[in-house]
Structures are given as C-alpha cells and as structure tokens.
Write a structure and sequence with these properties.
The complex is a heterodimer of chains A (112) and B (114).
Chain A (H helix, E strand, L loop, with lengths): L3 E3 L4 E4 L4 E7 L6 E7 L5 E7 L4 E3 L2 E6 L4 E6 L8 E11 L2 E6 L3 E6 L1
Parallel strand pairs in A: 2-11
Antiparallel strand pairs in A: 1-3, 3-8, 4-5, 4-9, 6-7, 7-8, 9-10, 9-11
Chain B lengths: L3 E4 L2 E4 L5 E7 L5 E8 L3 E10 L2 E4 L6 E3 L9 E3 L8 E8 L9 E2 L3 E5 L1
Parallel strand pairs in B: 2-11
Antiparallel strand pairs in B: 1-3, 3-8, 4-5, 4-9, 5-6, 7-8, 9-10, 9-11
The chains are: A mainly beta (112), B mainly beta (114).
Chain lengths: 112, 114
Amino acid sequence: RKEVEQDPGPFNVPEGATVAFNCTYSNSASQSFFWYRQDCRKEPKLLMSVYSSGNEDGRFTAQLNRASQYISLLIRDSKLSDSATYLCVVNTHTGTASKLTFGTGTRLQVTL
Amino acid sequence: NAGVTQTPKFQVLKTGQSMTLQCAQDMNHEYMSWYRQDPGMGLRLIHYSVGAGITDQGEVPNGYNVSRSTTEDFPLRLLSAAPSQTSVYFCASSPLGRGQNEQFFGPGTRLTVL
C-alpha cells in the first residue's frame, strides 16, 4: 500500500463547478499535511497547509480527519486557471528533520 | 531573491557518463533536498541535508552522491548514468524545524539517459 494515495483523475469539470479531491495516508504518526499545486512541466508550489480544525483560503477548503487518516481539498467556483495537478503531501517528523511523502497527484482540468 | 535555482534545465547523457546537477538557494535555509519525479510515482526523496557538512540518504539514493559545503549549494552527482535515471529532478529548500514548513522547489532539471 502506498504511504499517500490519491485518485489520479483526471477530473474534468466546467467553470463554476465545485470539485473535491481526497487523499489517504497510512502512517498514523504523520504530523502535518499540505496540498501542493503543480502546473504542467513546472515545479510544485504550496497551495495550503491542512489543519485539524479545517481551514479555508478563498475558494479552497482543506479538511483533515486524523481518525480516518484522510485529507480533502474542496475547490468552489472553479476557474480555468485552477487546471493543474494537486499533490497531497504528508510530513512525518523524525529526529531533527522531517520526511515529506508526496502523493502521485490528482489532475484537474477546468473547461469552458 | 532568486529563491531556488537549478542548472541545467535540460540534459541528455549517454549510459555511463557522469554529471552534476547544480542547486542553489539564497533564502538561508538549513534544509535542502533532491527529489526525482516519474510518471505514476510521485516525488521521491533522493538525498537531503540539514545543514552544511551534513547529508543523509532518502528513499532512492543509489547511483547518486551529494555534498553540502555551504548553506547555499547542494549539488547532486550522477556517478554513472543509467536509463533508469531518466527523470525530472527537483531541488527544494526550507527552514529546518518540526512545524508546518513550506518547501520551496527549484524549476527542475529534465534528464534523459540514452
């Protein structure tokens, strides 16, 4: 079983739609969680951290369920510019450093 | 600030050749790392460093060497390139700590080994 699992998609949605991505992780000792965005042939960039209480940044809402080891990302009112691959990232702290484990990503294509 | 820079952007090697991928950051980050990204595999950690003079292996270190003589630079050396090392390589840096630290990635190096 992969440490971090995501549905690879692609998710094809029309502009204005709401779309949700899910991610599960296997290491119950994982301590921090992130969503990164990666545009085609570009580097990953941090979209948002994910907190236990859930957090929102504009049209983006992230949720964490530690008991189920499940992370989600909700995008409301999708824009063409949201088309990208969304990477779920789990951080497990070991000694002085952290181990980041990346999911393979979920591809989103927003269309007119 | 330039952030994280990587050179070259593209490289084609023949099997058995060696080369060094360069990575530099100007944010005074203690933590630097190298990942490779392959289709269907996600990013996998090759080597990382928590400060000058300190390096350690990640998930897929075989065939690669690193050194960290300064805070700014973290080169990745391919000792004898193999077709299995065809990939996109990303360097990343962040402050050292146990908290919610954002990783800053360089633009990547696309390597093809023939």
